[in-house]
Amino acid sequence: MARLVITHSTYVEGLIPLLRRLATLPDIDTITPAVISRVKGRSIGLRLRVSSPITGGHKLLARRGSTAQEVFVVTRLSRDQLQEAVDRLTN
To answer: Label partner for 15 (CA 20 to 30 A): which of 5, 7, 21, 78?
Structure first.
């Protein structure tokens, strides 16, 4: 099971339970939620998508309403494999 880093006092609503399920998947080492920001537009429900590569993994962007949060995932999975895993968890 991967390590889920909980360091902030605020998270996008519903994000932590989703990340806990993601942490149970093989090939995922560490999940770290990061910066929360306001964005233009509104997202219905919680959406999580792979945004860009980072050293050793990928950055995800979680959106709910007009709030967005970066999530860093250290993993051996490719971008497509990670997005498929995220899609399975959110549907």
So the answer is: 78
pLDDT tens digits, 7-43:
877 899 999 999 999 999 999 999 999 999 999 988 8
CA distance 59 to 39: 17
Which uninterrupted H or E stretch holds 81? helix 79-90
Average pLDDT, the chain: 93
Residue 87: other Cβ atoms inside 10 A:
12
| pTM higher than the cut 0.70 | yes
* Residues recorded for the chain: 91
Cβ atoms of 89 and 40 within 8 Å: the answer is: no
CB 87 within 8 A of CB 61: no
CA distances from 79 to 25, 28, 38, 54 (A): 15, 12, 25, 11
